[in-house]
Request: fold
Amino acid sequence: MTAMVKSESVHKSFGPLEVLKGIDLEVNTGEVFCLIGPSGSGKSTFLRCINHLEKINAGRLYVDGDLVGYRQKGSKLYELKDSEVALKRRDIGMVFQRFNLFPHMTAVENVMEAPMQVKGTKRSDARDRAMELLERVGLGDKAKNYPSQLSGGQQQRVAIARALAMDPKLMLFDEPTSALDPELVGDVLDVMRDLAESGMTMVVVTHEMGFAREVGDSLVFMDGGVVVEAGNPRDVLTDPQHERTKSFLSKVL
Amino acid sequence: MTDNLDKSPSDTPPPGDTVSKSGASGPSPEAIKAIPVRHWGRWVSGVIVVALLVALIFAFSQGNIMWSTVGDQLFVSSVVQGAGRTLLISVLAMVVGVVLGVVLAVMRLSKNPVTSSVAWLYIWFFRGTPVYVQLLLWFNLALIFPVLNLGPIYKNEMTDVMTPFMCALLGLGLNEAAYMAEICRAGLLAVDEGQTEAAHALGMSHTKTLRRIVIPQAMRVIVPPTGNEFINMLKTSSLVYAVTYNELLRSTSAIGSTSYAVMEMLFVASIWYLAMTSVFSVFQYYLERYYARGSSRSLPPTVFHKIKTNMLGLGRERGNA
Reply:
């Protein structure tokens, strides 16, 4: 198995505040990798580093064997141009906590937008593919609705379809169910479960321990900008080794 | 009632709709028929206002006004031409203002300190001095630069370049750009940062993100004040009287001063200004409606629909359709 994401001692600071204090981990191709931890532990920040929405300050971060945001020549690092960063991002889908659907476009237009604008896909092809994806997330009948006319769970499923439209090889989920009403969480998790079964590599920041246990292949517990504990989700969640993990899990489970 | 909760239909409608449907399923209680509260205060204030209005109209009817002159002069060719020029200079100045304003807004928001401070300086000057003074500055530019010399490209006497039209266009347009820049900047800043992030995460470039995602959403914030600016411009354009551009006010007062119908011709001008601003208010309404798409659960009603629901009481029919 090759590593889809490889993080070597990744550091990230916002001004004087050090959010990531050396993250080492590997996400294998085809696995569902769950990141859990209290808020402020740096898990979302780390996720955003993977597609270079945040710049790391030290360490090395690789996606599919390529350095994120930089090119290495000899011992020197060169920053990538914006266009090169954009090219890399095509292959990495991201789903946000707050959905971030484009409110001035209908559901199907949201899904069509990136393939048409970024890949130059023909409108009719993009529409066919978008409809297919909306069907897949169970929203074929909502294609013509604007995001404001959809529930949170439906919006998040459109957001997943939108990310899938670029045929990514890696999907990042930033607390995809945290902004949802409890009864809508299930629909979104079902879609994610299907996606995991189809073999997609997924990095999921989540508070859904049930999902992590059932679907996750690996799990990392982060706190204070470091990885406290890592391993098989079933092992870590049922039998945590560290005190910090134990006290966190005792509060959320 | 419980039926609705357990087995919700496959296409769950937004909560607003369910209320009317669930009402039909159960045995509905008798509709309330109560005697409405009498608003005596409304009647009193209404009578007072109408009385004042009648007094005002009476005063005007007694005034020494040649109403026939107003009617006669309303469509005189020089007046119509003046109105046309007012419209022309307003539209052109607005175009200059919007284009330059967008450029200035992007400059102000850029990370380059040179471009952002130049934009700041521009806005500081053109917003900080009266437009009337700016018009006179352009008008008298020949006093300090007798010749306009753009090297090999262009060379001419300044008085030939600075025609009344050019003075009016530059004076109004460059002033407007400063205001439009601030309006556009506010609009761009109003778009949620998550939108840019989502677009970037999908691999869209900065320009594509700006053009496809940010600007269409900023328009919703930008359009209403821009409409106001344009209506303002239609009226502010009367200041170009000072640079001898023959627009509506100048053409009407020319007639007014020769025919001793000063007030009558000012009425003529007012009627034209009102007509133009009214037409554009309606136009603005539909433009806002277009850019509001997706922002609310249902689009705002059109003027005609508003009249239908509020005045004629036909609104219910549409809800069932």
Q: What stands out?
A: Chain A touches chain B at residues 51, 53, 82-83, 86-90, 92-94, 96, 98, 100-106, 113-114, 117-118, 141, 146-149, 151, 162-163, 166 (CB under 8 Å). Chain A has a mean pLDDT of 94.
